[in-house]
Amino acid sequence: MRIIADSGSTKTDWAVAGSKAFIAKTQGINPVLMSREHIVEILRTELLPQLQGQVAEDEDVEVWFYGAGVRPEMEPKMTSALQESLTGVAGKVSASAASDLLGAARALCGRNEGVACILGTGANSCLYDGSRIVRNTPALGFILGDEGGGAALGKAFLNGIFKGVLPSWMREDYLKESGLTLSDIIRKVYREPMPNRFLASLTHYMGRHIDNQQLQQLVTENFRLFFCRNIRPYRRADLPVSFVGSVAYYFLPQLLQAAREEGFELGTVVKSPLQGLFDYHQT
Questions:
Q1: Which of 30, 127, 185, 189 would you label with 109, given CA atoms 20 to 30 Å apart?
Q2: CATH 3.30.420.40 location in the chain
Q3: Looking at 146-259, which runs of residues are DSSP E strands?
Q4: In CATH, which superfamily holds the domain spanning 112-272?
């Protein structure tokens, strides 16, 4: 059995290919933010029940985990958590872990040179030589950076509705629909855990109202910042810029406009890297 995982800050998709192919889902797993014990608990309580009846006890399993926070020093922590969780459930377990950015590059570019990006809850980018990441502009997270990512868009949206950049009807409509007050929003952002997930969740509302010209401009300007601050430093305007992630996928018209305005060619844009990663690992 072959399992390929694509994990962000919000959720993890597990593509399972054995006697039956299916997609399993769990919450996001980040080895920087989570203890090894917490990761093992998530795998045992959320992933393994979905694998029951699909994996024979003597069946060998290969797992490739690509995730946010899987920096080189975090790879042993992640692989050992995977092996511990699956041991006893299957036969021989072979697990490897790498960054979600390398996963994006492999899915989008295969073994060809290119610029690969992630626009999901967070944002990241790299220059990829067909084998490895050769340059990476630091994303810096949603407080210091992550331009173009869902959390950054959510932050810009809240700033816009409360400071008059966006129309007043949008503020009233969002507060009525969400049932939140300004005090609730402040609490969620500054006092509750995972504020990036809350901020990124606002993109669902934004997507439903993206026909509003002022909101379109806000999103496009945020994407322009992404190209200007993250892609231009690579000095490779000759290469197409490709994307994975729900934000890139659902706000494609604004992303395309931002790329044109900043002088870049848009390459492949997909919501999930899983199919590309399967193709990569089969060649």
A1: 30
A2: 2-102, 112-272
A3: 241-244
A4: ATPase, nucleotide binding domain (3.30.420.40)
Percent of the chain clearing pLDDT 70 (strictly above): 98
Taking the C-alpha atoms of residue 279 and residue 14, their distance in angstroms, rounded to an integer, is 15
Q: Phi, psi at residue 152, to the nearest 5°?
A: -65, -40
Q: 2-102, what's its fold?
A: Nucleotidyltransferase; domain 5 (3.30.420)
pTM for the whole thing?
A: 0.83
Q: What is the pLDDT of residues 46-94, one digit of tens each?
A: 999 988 877 667 778 899 999 988 989 999 999 999 999 888 777 788 8
Q: Which residues have C-beta within 8 Å of that of residue 149, sequence separation ≥ 6?
A: 118, 119, 120, 121, 122, 123, 139, 142, 200, 247
Q: Which two tokens stand for residue 238?
A: 């000759």
The half-sphere exposure of 32 on its side-chain side, counting CA atoms within 13 A, is 13
Residue type present at position 233: P
Calculate the alpha carbon distances from 50 to 14, 45, 116, 135, 256 in Å: 10, 9, 31, 37, 38
Phi, psi values for residue 173, rounded to 5°: -65, -45
